[in-house]
Design goal:
- The protein is built from 10 helices and 28 strands.
- The radius of gyration is 26 Å and the shape is globular.
- Mean pLDDT is 88; it is low at 1-5, 17-28, 536-563 and 566-592.
- Helix 1 runs parallel beside helix 9 and helix 9 (557-574) runs antiparallel to helix 10.
- The strands form 6 sheets. An 8-stranded mixed sheet has the order 1-25-21-24-20-19-18-17, with no helix packed on it. A 6-stranded mixed sheet has the order 16-15-14-26-27-28, covered by helices on one side. Strands 5, 6, 11, 12 and 13 form a 5-stranded antiparallel sheet that branches.
- By secondary structure, the protein is of the alpha+beta class.
- The two termini are 27 Å apart.
- The relative contact order is 0.15.
C-alpha cells in the first residue's frame, strides 16, 4: 500500500527533473553576465556623444587601390554572393567590361559575354556548371552639361541543388574569352530547422564609402560573419554631381541643379571595395532613400535593382524592394520603405501571404528589415516613417515578429519590446544601425532634448508623402509630439560608427552585440540576449510535457496533476518572476 502511495511522489520528482533539464536547455547559452530581454524593460540609457568621433567621414578617392579597376578586358570584377529563398540555392553576380561616363556613351551589348559559373565541393575539379542572364543599365539626364553613364555588363547566375552548411568553390566569367575569375568560395546556409542557425549574422546600414566605412568593414570581417544584412543606403553616389564633385550635404551645396544628380562610378568603386567580403559571404540588401537616383523618364532605383540579385521570384514577390528568405531557423522579411506599403497595395498583400506561410516549428525566429526606423528618438528623421508604421505594424505584431532592423538614422539605438509606442512584452525589439560610416556623418541630437522637437509638418517622408505623425494620445507624452525625456521604449542609444552581430543560439535565445569602430573588434558597445516571447517558450514546454504524459500513458488523473505540478515547481525553482509564474500556471491549467 505504501509502495503504491509513493508512486505519485516519485513521478512528481522525476517530472520535476526532466522538465527542469528541458527548460534549462533553452537557457544554457546565458553566461550570467549578459542581460536578457526577460530582465526588461530597461531604464533608458544615453551614452554621451564623443566629439572626437566625427572625423574621417571622408570618401575614399578614386585613386585608392581598393576601388581601382584591376580586371583586364572582360575579366569578372565586383563579384558577390546572394542567398536565394532557401539553403539549396544562391546567386553569383559580377560585372565585366568598363563603365562609360560622358556625353557620347555607347552601351555594351550584354549578349557578347556569357554568364557562366563552374562550381563544386572540391577546388579541383569544379564539376558543376550553371548559366544565367546579363544586363546593362544607364543613368541618363535630359539636361545640357550633365554627364550620362552606362554600366559594365552585369551578370546574375543562380546555382541550385546545393547541400546545406557546405563549402562550395566557384569561378565565374566567360570561358570562351579566357575571361574566368580566380577560384572563390562560399558556404551555404544551414537547413531550416529549430536547432539549425548560421553562427554569426552581421547587420550594417548606411555604409557609403568613407574611411569610416573601411573601419566598419574591417571590424565586421574580423567577426567572421556567415551572412551580411545591409539595411539600405549603399554607396551615397547621390551626394555627387555627374562631374564627380561631392558634398556632405547635396541640397546645401547644389541647390540649383535641375535634377538630383548622381555620380554612378561610386557604385563601381563600392563593388570593388566590398568584393573581398561579399565574394565569399552572402550579402542581402534592401533599398534606402539614397538609392532613389532619379533620371530621365522619372526612372528610379535603377542601379540598386540592376546590380544586386534578389530572391524575389523565389519568395513570391514581384519586386526587388521586398522579398524573404530563410537562413537556418530564421525567416527574414525584407520590406520596402520606398514603395507602396498601404493595406490595399501589392507589398502588403505579399506580406500577408508570406507571414501566413511561415512555419514557426521550422523557422522559430522571425526577423523583419527595412530602411527607415519606426522607433528612433533622434532628431534626424524623427517619426518620418510613421505612415509605414501605421499601415504595417499591427500585421507584423500579430505574427509575432521578434526583431526589427533598420538604418537611415546615422547612429545606434535599441528599443525595449514595443508596440504602438507602448511597452509590450509581445512586441519586437527594434534596432537602428544606420551607423556604417557614410559621408553625411553621425546623428547626435535627440527629439526629446529641449528645443529639438521638430515641427510635425516637417517630418513626413519626402519620397512617399502622406502625414500620419500626430501627437501622442496616451502615456507620459500625451498631447505632445515629442517626449520631454528619453522615451521609455528607448533602451539604449549612442552616436558612434559601427556594426552589429546577431548570433541565434537556439529557438529561444539570440545574442545581439553592437560593435563600435573605436573599440577593438571583440569589444561590445551594447550586448543583450534577445529572448523569444516568454509565453511562446511556456507553450513549447507545456507541449513537451503533454507529449511526455501521453507517452507514459498515465491513466490516473491525480498522478497527471501531480506531474504537472512538479513541472511548474521545477520552473519556479529556476526563475521566480511573478508575472511569468502566473502565465505558467495559466498555461499548465489549460493542459490539465
Amino acid at each position: 500500500m505504501m509502495r503504491t502511495q509513493r508512486l505519485p511522489l516519485k513521478l512528481f520528482f522525476l517530472s520535476a527533473i526532466l522538465i527542469t533539464l528541458l527548460y534549462l536547455e533553452s537557457f544554457a547559452v546565458v553566461d550570467g553576465r549578459t542581460p536578457t530581454t526577460l530582465d526588461g524593460p530597461f531604464e533608458p540609457v544615453t551614452v554621451p556623444f564623443d566629439e572626437s568621433l566625427r572625423g574621417h567621414a571622408v570618401d575614399l578617392p578614386d585613386t585608392d587601390p581598393r576601388v581601382r579597376r584591376m580586371a583586364k578586358g572582360f575579366e569578372p570584377e565586383q563579384i558577390s554572393v546572394t542567398l536565394s529563398a532557401t539553403y539549396d540555392s544562391v546567386w553569383i553576380s559580377w560585372i565585366t567590361g568598363e563603365f562609360q561616363i560622358g556625353n557620347n556613351i555607347k552601351p555594351l551589348n550584354p549578349q557578347t559575354v556569357a554568364s557562366f559559373v563552374r562550381y563544386g565541393m572540391l577546388r579541383y575539379p569544379l564539376t558543376h556548371e550553371a548559366t544565367g542572364s546579363s544586363l546593362i543599365y544607364n543613368q541618363l539626364y535630359p539636361f545640357e552639361g550633365l554627364q550620362n553613364y552606362t554600366s559594365g555588363i552585369i551578370h546574375h547566375v543562380r546555382l541550385t541543388g546545393l547541400n546545406p552548411g557546405t563549402l562550395y568553390y566557384y569561378r565565374c566569367g566567360d570561358p570562351s574569352k579566357s575571361a574566368m575569375s580566380k577560384i572563390y568560395s562560399f558556404k551555404t546556409m544551414p537547413v531550416s530547422g529549430p536547432k539549425s542557425y548560421p553562427k554569426r549574422i552581421a547587420v550594417v546600414g548606411d555604409l557609403g564609402l568613407t574611411y569610416n566605412t573601411s573601419s566598419t568593414i574591417s571590424h565586421l570581417i574580423d567577426n567572421s560573419p556567415d551572412l551580411v544584412l545591409l539595411v539600405g543606403d549603399v554607396t551615397y553616389a547621390n551626394l555627387y554631381l555627374t562631374n564627380g564633385t561631392g558634398s556632405d550635404c547635396y541640397s546645401c551645396s547644389f541647390s540649383n541643379t535641375p535634377i538630383h544628380e548622381t555620380y554612378q562610378p561610386r557604385w563601381d568603386y563600392w563593388g570593388r571595395f566590398m568584393e573581398p567580403l561579399v565574394s565569399k559571404v552572402p550579402i542581402m540588401v534592401v533599398e534606402g532613400n539614397h538609392e532613389l537616383e532619379q533620371q530621365v523618364e522619372n526612372r528610379t532605383f535603377v542601379a540598386y535593382s540592376s546590380r544586386f540579385a534578389f530572391p524575389s521570384k523565389e519568395s513570391g514577390s514581384s519586386s526587388t524592394f521586398y522579398y524573404s528568405f530563410n537562413a537556418g531557423g530564421i525567416h527574414f522579411i525584407m520590406l520596402g520603405a520606398y514603395i507602396s506599403y498601404n493595406k490595399t497595395g501589392e507589398q502588403y498583400r505579399w506580406l500577408e501571404r508570406d507571414l501566413a506561410n511561415v512555419d514557426r516549428s521550422v523557422t522559430p525566429w522571425l526577423v523583419a528589415t527595412w530602411h527607415a526606423p519606426w522607433y528612433s528618438t533622434y532628431n534626424a528623421h524623427y517619426r518620418e516613417a510613421e505612415c509605414m508604421r501605421v499601415n504595417m505594424e499591427e500585421l507584423l505584431y500579430s505574427y509575432g515578429v521578434d526583431i526589427v532592423f533598420s538604418g537611415h538614422v546615422h547612429a545606434y539605438e535599441r528599443s525595449n519590446r514595443v508596440y504602438n509606442y507602448t511597452l509590450d512584452p509581445c512586441g519586437p525589439v527594434h534596432i537602428t544601425v544606420g551607423d556604417g560610416g557614410n559621408r553625411e556623418k553621425m546623428a547626435k541630437s535627440h527629439a526629446d532634448e529641449p528645443g529639438n522637437c521638430p515641427d510635425p509638418l516637417t517630418t513626413p517622408d519626402t519620397i512617399m508623402g502622406g502625414f500620419c505623425a500626430f501627437n501622442f494620445t496616451s502615456g507620459p507624452a500625451a498631447g505632445k509630439f515629442c517626449w520631454d525625456r528619453q522615451p521609455e521604449y528607448s533602451a539604449y542609444r549612442e552616436s558612434s560608427f559601427g556594426h552589429g552581430i546577431l548570433e541565434v543560439k537556439n529557438r529561444t535565445y539570440a545574442l545581439w552585440t553592437w560593435h563600435r569602430n573605436q573599440d577593438m573588434y571583440n569589444s561590445a558597445g551594447d550586448q543583450i540576449y534577445i529572448v523569444r516571447q516568454p509565453d511562446n517558450s511556456v507553450v513549447t514546454i507545456a507541449g513537451h510535457l503533454k507529449v511526455w504524459l501521453q507517452e507514459l500513458q498515465l491513466r490516473a488523473s491525480k498522478d497527471s496533476k501531480d506531474i504537472g505540478l512538479g513541472a511548474v515547481v521545477a520552473i519556479i525553482i529556476y526563475k521566480s518572476n511573478p508575472s511569468y509564474l502566473s502565465l505558467l500556471f495559466f498555461r499548465f491549467k489549460a493542459i490539465f
